[in-house]
Write a structure and sequence with these properties.
It is a single chain. With 481 residues, the chain is α/β, with parallel strands linked by helices. The chain is 39% helix and 22% strand. It is built from 16 helices and 25 strands. Helix 3 runs antiparallel to helix 6. It starts with a strand and ends in a 5-residue tail after the last strand.
Length: 481
């Protein structure tokens, strides 16, 4: 039997009147039962966050940094426990779940470091014009107000960390809404925050049902919304609150380009291994997983069989087994959707080289070629372990193929040519270009986000801190400069 998990309301544990069950996508077992906040409790959390805005902004940096350091240390101490929890509620293979905990540890550590040096102020002399003689401007950043953080299921700990840690670092109260399928990891962060000295009301973790979110999104006391998820939901949120500040980290259909100079057997083995690994890690449920391989015609015939072999070598199965590479998708419905997209592509003329089979919530790692440009698989984010491979003639055609998408999150370019790397950086309409590797690389301290329908704004600890704050200028007069 599992006990009911309370949520965190203005820094304290609370329970509502109803509950929902969290089950494993691998075997359907009960992982936990979660209490749902009532409308009155949600209102209490919002009112408490709104009331503490000024006091939290004035909290000394060392207090906020100490709280963030504490969470980072406690995550280290509880790594194995939390990794098993992530794997159970999400279906993520244990080795990837351990990596996610490690990343969250870094996010809170980075945030503690940034909290100590953020907002120090920038001085600007104004006597460069006669009217500014004796005047000095001092610019500092202040929180915009309460942040509503909405996190997805695919990284249930680390993407909650990316909402919470920057907000605490700048002194902005935050209400975190974890994904309904994977709320337990976010609730763990609430448990760790409750061990700190942060003021009451400065944070809440509320597993609010999706159908209750529109009222929360539109609440004027929550001027900042940070959302990670699908483009459909993200832009619906933005359209519903045009006067709010929205950071949207949305989808992608990540492309890995293999240029003609990346042609040795060692090069192609490396590219194939990285592509196979990162088209399937997290079950392909990552917005920067490899979905499209765009290979120069001069290397295509040698690269394709290497990719197929590397994909077929991915070990599928029980996510709690440390040797498993690919676990189930988050639900059987998600796997059925992926199955339907692949079946549509094959019916339209695509060739299946590996995979293409579903077993419950699991979908076999899949490779296709010749996917018609008008199929769903070619146009949308598959969010599953599916890879398409295409041949192109030359660099310009490769870069054009990357850009022939409504998405633009990240791209990988396998090349040894430094000039080609800079040309890619200039030409590709994406938020990040990863040279010598797949698009799936993300360092949690770097700016992260996309172009086109992949979103607006940037995450990454310091960059999210900028996003949650605004500049305020102080002009001092009558100074002997």
């Amino acid at each position: 039997m599992t006990s009911t998990h309370a949520f965190w309301l203005a820094g304290r544990q609370a329970t509502g009147e109803t509950t929902f069950d969290v089950t494993s996508p691998w075997d359907g077992r009960l992982v936990g039962t979660v209490s749902v906040p009532t409308d009155a409790q949600v209102e209490e959390a919002v009112a408490a966050a709104h009331a503490v805005v000024d006091d939290f902004a004035a909290t000394p940096a060392h207090v906020r940094a100490a709280a963030l350091d504490h969470v980072s240390r406690r995550l280290v101490e509880r790594t194995e426990e939390i990794a098993h929890l992530i794997s159970a509620e999400n279906g993520k293979p244990l080795k990837w779940a351990r990596g996610e905990v490690g990343r969250a540890i870094s996010v809170f550590r980075f945030a503690a470091e940034e909290a100590r040096r953020f907002n120090g102020g920038e001085a600007q002399r104004l006597d460069t014009d006669a009217g500014g003689q004796g005047r000095l401007a001092l610019t500092r950043r202040f929180p915009k107000g309460v942040v509503l953080g909405i996190a997805p299921f695919n990284f249930p700990l680390n993407l909650c960390a990316h909402k919470i840690a920057p907000a605490i670092a700048v002194g902005a109260p935050i209400i975190l809404k974890p994904a309904p399928a994977t709320p337990l990891s976010g609730l763990i962060l609430g448990e760790l925050l409750a061990e700190t000295e942060l003021p009451a009301g400065s944070w809440s973790v509320l597993p609010v049902p999706n159908d209750k979110m529109p009222a929360l999104v539109q609440d004027e006391r929550l001027p900042v919304i940070s959302f990670t998820g699908s483009d459909k939901v993200g832009y619906a949120i933005m359209d519903s609150v045009p006067r709010k500040h929205c950071t949207l980290e949305l989808g992608g259909n990540g492309a890995a380009v293999v240029l003609a100079d990346f042609a040795s057997e060692e090069d192609l083995d490396w590219a194939a291994t990285r592509i196979a690994t990162f088209s399937n890690y997290q079950g392909g449920q990552s917005c920067i997983s490899v979905q499209r391989v765009i290979a120069d015609a001069s290397v295509y015939d040698r690269l394709l069989p290497k990719i197929v072999a590397a994909v077929e070598a991915q070990r599928t199965g029980d996510p709690s087994d440390p040797t498993t590479d690919v676990g189930p998708l988050v639900s059987e419905d998600a796997a059925k959707r992926v199955e339907s997209w692949v079946d549509e592509a094959v019916a339209a003329g695509a060739r299946l080289h590996a995979g293409g089979k579903r077993d419950g919530a699991s979908y076999a790692p899949t490779v296709l070629t010749g996917v018609p440009a008008d199929t769903t698989l070619a146009c949308e984010e598959v969010f599953g372990p599916v890879l398409t491979v295409t041949s192109v003639d030359g660099e310009a055609e490769a870069f054009a193929a990357v850009n022939d998408s409504k998405y633009g999150l990240q791209a990988g370019v396998f090349t040894h040519d430094l000039q080609a790397a800079f040309r890619a950086h200039r030409a590709l309409e994406v938020g990040g270009v990863i040279v010598g590797d797949v698009p799936s690389y993300r360092a949690d301290q770097m700016p992260y986000g996309g172009a086109k329908q992949s979103g607006v704004g940037r995450e990454g600890v310091k960059f999210a801190m900028d996003d949650y704050t605004y500049e305020r200028v102080l002009v001092l007069t009558g100074l002997a400069l």
